[in-house]
Design goal:
This protein is mainly α. Helix content is 80%, strand content 0%. α4 (88-108) packs antiparallel against α5 (110-153) and α9 runs antiparallel to α10 (243-258).
Length: 288
C-alpha cells in the first residue's frame, strides 16, 4: 500500500503556534508509519497512526482546513493498513467513517476533498472483492482441512505438518471474512497439533500465537485475553531471538493499551468533527 499524498500549509494564518505544533507532531508520526509501511511492518504502522489520531484530538478547532486534511489522510491510512492486514471488516468500518467525514467536507470544498472521496470508493470496492474471494477460498480450504484430518487420524505422521498449515490458512480466511470466533478455534487447533508434533515451542508456534492474538484483539471484549497471550509468548520469542516477532508483540500490546481509555472519547471526537462540518455546511447553504 501507499499513503495518499497531501500538502499541509503549517504556516497558514489560521494556525496558532500551538496548533501548528500539534499538526507537526501528528505529521511526524504519519511519516514514521509510512516508513513501517514501506517495510511491510503493518502492526508498527498501525500503532503510529493510532498515536497520531490520538494527538489530533488535542487540536482546538476541528473545522480548520489543515486539521481536516490531515485527519482524512490518517483515517485513510488506517483503513488501508487494516486492508493490508486482511482485516476487511475493520477496514470497511473505517471507510464508512471516512464517507461520513468526507460527505460534508466535499460539499464545502470539493476541490480539496473530492479526490479522497473517489479513493474511498475505490477502497470500498476492493474490500468487497477481497471478502468475496476469501469466502470462495474458504470453502475449498475447509475441504482440504477435512481430508488432512482423516489422514492424521489414520496415523499418517507426515500429514500433521500439512494439517497445521491448513488449519492456520483456514483461520486466516475466517478472520478475513469477519468470523473472529471461528478463526480463533482454528488457530487454537493449529497450535495444539503443532506443539504435539514438535514437543516444544518453535518459531512456527510463536508466529501462530501472535496472529491469533491480533485476531482476538478485533473483539474489544477479548483484548485483555489477547494481552495475556502476548505476554505469555514474549519470553519464547526472546529466547528464540525472533526479533521481528518481538516487535510485533510489543506493537500489539501498545495498541491494546491505547484502546483501554473509554471509547466515548473517540466517539465524541468524531461526532464533533462530523457535526461541525454539517453546521458549517448549513450555514454556507443558508439563503442570504
Amino acid at each position: 500500500m501507499n499513503q495518499i499524498e497531501l500538502t499541509l500549509n503549517l504556516n497558514s494564518p489560521s494556525l496558532s503556534p500551538e496548533e501548528a505544533e500539534i499538526l507537526k507532531n501528528a505529521l511526524k508520526m504519519r511519516e514514521e508509519a509510512g516508513e513501517f509501511i514501506r517495510q511491510e511492518k503493518y502492526l508498527e504502522a498501525m500503532e503510529r497512526t493510532v498515536a497520531a489520531l490520538k494527538g489530533m484530538r488535542e487540536f482546538p478547532d476541528f473545522q480548520n482546513p489543515e486539521f481536516r486534511l490531515l485527519l482524512v489522510a490518517l483515517l485513510f491510512d488506517l483503513a488501508e493498513i487494516h486492508y493490508s492486514l486482511k482485516n476487511y471488516k475493520q477496514s470497511e468500518k473505517e471507510v464508512e467513517l471516512l464517507f461520513k467525514v468526507l460527505d460534508n467536507l466535499v460539499r464545502i470544498d470539493e476541490e480539496r476533498f473530492g479526490q479522497y472521496h473517489i479513493l474511498a470508493m475505490e477502497l470500498s470496492t476492493r474490500i468487497l472483492r477481497s471478502r468475496k474471494k476469501a469466502l470462495d477460498l474458504l470453502v475449498k480450504q475447509q475441504i482440504t482441512t477435512g481430508s488432512l484430518y482423516e489422514k492424521v487420524n489414520s496415523g499418517i505422521a507426515a500429514a500433521t505438518e500439512k494439517l497445521v498449515d491448513s488449519l492456520c490458512t483456514t483461520a486466516q480466511l475466517l478472520a478475513a471474512t469477519g468470523d473472529i470466533r471461528g478463526s480463533l478455534k482454528f488457530y487454537a487447533e493449529a497450535i495444539k497439533y503443532s506443539k504435539k508434533r514438535t514437543g516444544r515451542v518453535t518459531r512456527k508456534e510463536v508466529k501462530m500465537t501472535v496472529e491469533m492474538a491480533e485476531v482476538m484483539m478485533r473483539l474489544r471484549s477479548m483484548q485483555p485475553r489477547a494481552k495475556r497471550l502476548l505476554n505469555a509468548i514474549l519470553p519464547h520469542a526472546v529466547a528464540l531471538e525472533l526479533v521481528s516477532l518481538e516487535q510485533d508483540i510489543f506493537s500489539l500490546i501498545e495498541l491494546i493499551d491505547s484502546n483501554e481509555e473509554p471509547e466515548s472519547k473517540w466517539r465524541l471526537f468524531l461526532h464533533k468533527v462530523i457535526d461541525g462540518a454539517k453546521k458549517r455546511l448549513r450555514k454556507k447553504e443558508k439563503p442570504q
